[in-house]
Amino acid sequence: MTNNIADIAVLVSGGGTNLQALIDAQKSGIIKSGKIKLVVSNNANAYALTRAKDNGINTATVLKKECSSQAEFEQKIIDILKENDIDLIVLAGFMSILSVNFTDTFRDRIINVHPSLIPSFCGEGFYGLRVHEAALSKGVKVTGATVHFVNEIPDGGNIIVQKAVDVFEGDTPEILQKRVMEQAEWKILPAATELVCSSMTAKAAV
Ligand code: GAR
Hints:
- By secondary structure, the protein is an alpha/beta fold.
- The chain is built from six helices and seven strands, in the order E-H-E-H-E-H-E-H-E-H-E-E-H.
- Helix content is about 40%, strand content about 20%.
- Helix 1 crosses helix 6 and helix 5 packs across helix 6.
- About 40% of the residues are buried.
- The mean pLDDT is about 95.
- Glycinamide ribonucleotide binds near residues 12, 16 and 131.
């Protein structure tokens, strides 16, 4: 916590459009109780790293292939987060399931954005475009996005915010993904981040 502002780390793996939404929300004042201090990627080529650097945010990259186990990979990330005194960890397209050791280390301090209305189309194996492929195969007429706390059950922690999005005839997974991002994810992730940060700073002030 710096001057009663929560220090945020965003964990990413890919394009980082949700990271961009967080950066934009910080600039516009939607996020005012927290500040993005660090971006951590498990992919050296993630465009999210460029977005961070373009905005003067420190970055770190931890590659699974350079670790001997999942435990070592997670420990490296834990060490970086602790060294940076991070209060809140935001998973924004971070494509690695975290073990109970990690989630217990930061209990109630990790949130994730998932591109469906949990409990539909979630859990292990449901990530990125696969989620939208599954929603279209099922023929749902409404989908959406969810921001939730992260515990040891994949996509199983308490729900913070959800937003519904219509599915239209002729949608492809790519078209639906874009609509869910634009209408839901890029709005609810900043909103939930501010909500959690403001509750953290309120507690810290007591
Ligand atoms: C987003 O749609 C996010 O919800 C999803 O990956 C995409 C990342 O895009 N995450 C998951 O599926 C996690 N289970 P981004 O890198 O452009 O933010």
